[in-house]
Amino acid sequence: MAAKKQAADRYGSVWEVAITALRLGLTSFGGPVAHLGYFYEEYVKRKKWIDEKTYADLVALCQFLPGPASSQVGIGIGLMRAGVWGALVAWLGFTLPSAVALSLVAVWLQHHSWGDAGWMHGLLLAAVAVVAQAVWEMARKSAVGRLEATIAIIAAVAVLLVPGAWSQVAVIAAAGGIGAFGLRRKNVALSSSVAGIPPFIRRSTGVTLLLLFAVLLVALPLVRAWVSSPLWALFDSFYRAGALVFGGGHVVLPLLEAEVVPQGWITASQFLAGYSAAQAVPGPLFTFAAYIGMAAFGWKGVLVAAAAIFLPSFLLVLGSFPFWHWLRHQPRFQAALAGMNAAVVGILLAALYDPIWTQAVKGPVDLAFVLGAFLLLAIWKWPAWAVVLVSFVGGGLRAWLG
């Protein structure tokens, strides 16, 4: 009887996972760090679906992997609670509210003039402050040593001089190689305790999923060259962005901008305005993909872009579960990730200049606006959504007052 009760406490229904994730998706403002706090309170403290050790190990795994860490943690908890279907509905519930909201924003903007509207310019200036704060926070964590800082600066210079999605991929790969050797001795030893994440996935299945992740990353661009389909091109671009983002949701900005703006799917101003709008809704920042998909191709674009950008997370999380205990004790693996994280700081720094700064800041008044927004974010610790709303209203009032 005791064993049955423990099993009942450990496993639940897909329905309860979906309802809980949807509630979190409607209320989780504040970015990935805040999301992890919400998850801890809901899944560990209140519902007790997993213990603190397992949660800590799951967070560590998802921070090691590319992609949106908070969404990946939700996927992992859904998997442990209700199997693969639980993983799917955990992602869907957490993602759906912000994806729908941003899709509706894109629809609304399609029926209103972009021009030089003051409210839109306010959104662009908010994006400058939000990304500047992200660069600052990431640099304090991932570019503190001499070699890490050097990698970050060289990465910024490289992607500014040779713009494009593939140059960013090359920079991240090179930084991983440099980190694997140059940063190995600086690695902090991890605990030798047994990882708390139960396997749930067989090793053979894990290998298959990881191989599928790699095959898609290589094969999709090759097929794209032969298949004349804008939706296929959209899937390829967003899959690659989801597969190569290290360091948090903000890093998806330069990768996506390099993919979608040169294609002519949306303009740089539309891109940055949508990015700012993404700060004002709950849920993962990766649902910015839904905004771009809607603005470029309508509802089909929403489905394709959202599925493509999150698919790598599913493959990596489920595929890595059986190997996490081994991965977390590989110094060279950790050092390579440290090099990649330093590189993404530089890539985001380059994006802060172009296209964000060049599109938004046109004079001293704009600079003063950005500094004020940065003050609210970095010093007064306002949530990003509040700063975006203030910038939206402030930009409109500034235009109205002339």
Overall helicity: over 70%
In sequence order, what are the helices and strands, one letter per element?
HHHHHHHHHHHHHHHHHH
Number of separate strands: 0
Rg to the nearest angstrom? Answer: 21 Å
* Biggest sheet layout: none
Tally of individual domains: 1
Q: Report the principal-axis shape.
A: globular
Mean pLDDT across all residues, rounded?
86
What is the tally of helical segments? 18
Low-confidence stretches: 1-8, 185-195
- Strand-residue proportion: under 5%
Gap between N and C termini, in Å? Answer: 74 Å
Structural class: mainly alpha
Structure description:
- With 402 residues, the chain is mainly alpha-helical.
- The chain has one domain.
- It has 18 helices and no strands.
- Helix 13 runs antiparallel to helix 14.
- Mean pLDDT is 86; it is low at 1-8 and 185-195.
- Its main location: membrane.
- It is a multi-pass membrane protein.
- This is Chromate transporter.
- The chain crosses the membrane at residues 88-111, 117-136, 143-160, 166-183, 204-226, 238-256, 277-297, 303-324, 336-356, 368-401.
Quick gist of this model?
This protein is mainly α and 402 residues long. It contains 18 helices and no strands. It comes from Geobacillus kaustophilus GBlys.
